[in-house]
Amino acid sequence: MARTFVKTAFPYPLVWDEGNAEIRIGANLYKTHFKRVYRQEGDVSVIPVVTEAQNVEITNDRLFRAAHTSLEILFPLFVSEQSQVLEITRSVINRLIEVYRFTMNEFFLEPIPENEMWPSTILIAQDDGTFAPVSLFEHVFTLGGSRPARTAPIPDLAREYFCSGAELPIHRMLFLNAQREYIFENYRLAIVEAETAIESLILNAISQYYLDQGLSEKEVEGKLECGLKNLIKDHLPKCCGESFVGTGEHSAWKTKLYNLRNKIVHQGASVGMQETDEAVQTAEQVLKWLEKRIPK
Fold it and tell me: Who contacts 74 (Cβ-Cβ below 8 Å, separation ≥6)?
């Protein structure tokens, strides 16, 4: 049976180095093989890059200045519509990046938009292992600190998410967003994302607690209408087994994150690097406090 086979690449060099993963998109599983590829002398670039690289990593690099990742995707079936092939290819790439970002805490990565997709060679994979070319599609798309290139195995948790297609924890994804925006100096957005991560975890935890107690969704919605302050004071202790109010984490959250987020949202306040750094660190400590006590 003939199947679609795609060769492509994207600019983020994964520390997994080289490996295979089956990634679910909708009802279908796509077999992928990825490999970190270092720059070679003579490679063309329009940005400042390492001329030639081997076993080096540019810190928080999203511009393939030292390496990138090549990717092969074997489709479960033959797909005749070329636009659909490219759409699926981008979905596979972005799911790979999304799960990698979450499981490896690589907060600075983000999905590849359509107009930044790298060229893709589309082939037909035959049963005998040979390939027939279809076409080639091309899409329009100062060195930082470096360190020895990391290499890590694909964790079991990542493989579970790849295979199941399950949603990733929203509060953790929001916090990764906050860390990314801080690194790229989007300070207001970093603080908003950090606070939203905390509030989403609190609301979801309280909702799940009352659903587990047998309340209807409508009854749960009624309880959530009391406001964040009352949710934290009266309802969160039932989930956590102890009060969040009165802890050092609660005090830091109020002064370094919650009040600052309100000034940004309601007054358009400006914030600097130091304030944002303190706010994001505070959010991380609060999330750890909550995650330790909220039932899994």
Answer: 3, 4, 5, 30, 31, 32, 125
Question: Of 162, 196, 223, which closes a domain?
Answer: 162
Same domain, 195 and 100: no
Domains of the chain: total:
2
Q: How many CB atoms lie within 10 A of CB 182?
A: 23
> 10 and 149 share a domain?
yes
Residue range 15-30, pLDDT digits in tens: 999 999 999 999 999 9
Among 130, 162, 194, the domain-final residue is 162
Pairing of strands 56-58, 146-148: antiparallel
Specify the pTM.
0.81
Residue 112 and residue 74 in one domain? yes
109 and 137 belong to one structural domain: yes
Q: Which domain holds residue 103?
A: 3-162
Which residues share a beta bridge with 73?
Answer: 6, 32
142 pLDDT band, cuts 50/70/90, is very low
Q: Which two tokens stand for residue 112?
A: 């590849």
pLDDT digits (tens, 9 = 90+) for 51-67: 677 888 888 888 787 89
Cα–Cα distance measured from residue 96 to residue 70, given in angstroms and rounded to the nearest whole number: 12
Helices 273-293 and 170-183, packing angle to 10 deg: 160
Ranges of beta strands (E only) in 81-162 are: 120-125, 131-137, 146-148
